[in-house]
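Long-time lurker, first post. I've been practising inverse folding by hand and with some scripts of my own, and I keep getting stuck on stretches where the structure tokens seem ambiguous. Below is the full token string for one chain I'm working on. Before anyone asks, I'm not after the true native sequence, just a reasonable design that respects the backbone. If someone could post their per-position residues I'd love to compare against what I wrote down in my notebook.
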């Protein structure tokens, strides 16, 4: 069986993390979302991958190559203009000619490693198309589904009202009938050719579309930066301990810790798991990594620093006396001494953050900052909860940042 993995999207709601990096390459526990999905497909016995790429696709090609490292055979299809998920799958019709059934998976959502195998085991028992579903508290960012006796009766894309219920989890068992439906699909209100609209056409023709629940904590749609934090929590909690680095005397490790090759944890440091430390990192002396913190390769967390429930991407330096809580730092960032990312409001209300000019409720009481690649702070900078600092921006010494900072800007307190 072949699998089509849709990985052409940019992920504008994840700014500034996706300004130069495709959304599928954003890391969770120091591994790109897309790579995790491809490894899960390989474990399910699916090694022939058709990968639909678009924005900055050369970065995806450089990372994955032809798939040898993950035991797969990858063929790339370029979606030159982002016209939607139906168009993305439609570009693969030639590669799938002769395939009775095939798997389709979104390459920018988080899936537990067991999902493809378990989904296929159940979906193969059904005739027609199957779609993976998951129950969420807020269905508005996704396609909400209604089903009866295991058959989908309605699909509503991007509901305007936040309400709980089952949604489209972006994994499908398809057959050749989908391509005739795609040819009939018209642009949605969002101006895109939606795969869910193609499914509606099949349903109106009387063809069955089966709903297959993936189960709790098996899928997470990645729409906003704070979704990455939740996915990272799930991922590090499910890992097994690894100790391939150097741990000096006087270091305390409590709970699950992954320490990759070449990393050094210096004396006086405290690692409270689950935590993930990438390759060639330097931790300490006297640093504190709190639960669900994930460090990329070549990260430095220096003396007197505390990292809590955060994603710190490769080559970022936090040399000394800084606090990073419930935050995401892109690649190659540098924090001056005494930088603080505030992550809790005085009134303990849920934190809102601006996304494409509108305020969005994160649903979290604790949320720190989001830094784009290469952002820097001077000494004693303070960043308010939910604030984003753009790619390549500089925040001056002593600055108090209470609003988003554009990319490449120079921000200082007047």
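-- Answer (accepted) --
I ran through it position by position. Result:
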């Amino acid at each position: 069986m072949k699998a089509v993995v849709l990985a052409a999207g940019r992920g504008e709601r994840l700014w500034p993390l996706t300004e130069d990096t495709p959304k599928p390459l954003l890391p969770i526990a120091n591994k790109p979302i897309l790579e995790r999905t491809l490894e899960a497909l390989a474990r399910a016995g699916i090694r022939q991958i058709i990968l639909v790429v678009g924005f900055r696709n050369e970065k995806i090609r450089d990372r994955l190559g032809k798939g040898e490292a993950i035991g797969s055979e990858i063929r790339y299809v370029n979606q030159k203009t982002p016209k939607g998920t139906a168009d993305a799958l439609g570009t693969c019709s030639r590669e799938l000619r002769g395939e009775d059934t095939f798997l389709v998976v979104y390459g920018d959502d988080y899936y537990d490693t067991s999902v493809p195998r378990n989904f296929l085991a159940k979906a193969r028992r059904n005739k027609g198309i199957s779609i993976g579903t998951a129950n969420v508290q807020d269905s508005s960012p996704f396609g909400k589904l209604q089903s009866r006796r295991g058959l989908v009766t309605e699909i509503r894309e991007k509901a305007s009202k936040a309400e709980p219920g089952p949604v489209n989890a972006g994994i499908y068992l398809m057959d050749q009938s989908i391509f005739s439906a795609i040819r009939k699909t018209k642009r949605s209100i969002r101006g895109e050719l939606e795969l869910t609209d193609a499914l509606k056409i099949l349903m109106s023709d009387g063809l069955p579309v089966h709903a297959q629940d993936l189960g709790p904590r098996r899928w997470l749609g990645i729409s906003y930066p704070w979704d990455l934090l939740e996915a990272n929590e799930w991922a590090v909690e499910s890992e097994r301990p690894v100790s391939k680095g150097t741990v000096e005397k006087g270091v305390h490790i409590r709970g699950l810790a992954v320490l990759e090759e070449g990393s050094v944890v210096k004396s006086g440091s405290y690692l409270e798991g689950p935590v993930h430390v990438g390759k060639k990192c330097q931790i300490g002396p006297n640093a504190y990594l709190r639960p669900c913190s994930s460090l990329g390769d070549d990260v430095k967390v220096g003396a007197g620093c505390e990292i809590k429930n955060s994603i710190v991407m490769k080559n970022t330096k936090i040399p000394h006396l800084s606090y990073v809580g419930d935050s995401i730092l892109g690649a190659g960032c540098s924090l001056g001494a005494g930088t603080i990312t505030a992550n809790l409001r005085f009134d303990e209300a849920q934190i809102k953050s601006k996304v494409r000019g509108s305020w969005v409720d994160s649903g979290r009481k604790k949320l720190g900052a989001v830094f784009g690649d290469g952002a820097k702070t001077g000494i004693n900078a303070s960043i308010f909860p939910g604030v984003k600092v753009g790619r390549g921006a500089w925040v001056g010494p002593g600055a108090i940042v209470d609003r988003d900072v554009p990319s490449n800007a120079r921000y200082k307190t007047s």
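A couple of notes from the structure itself: Residues 44 and 121 are 9 Å apart (CA to CA). The longest helix spans residues 225-237. Happy to go over any region you disagree with.
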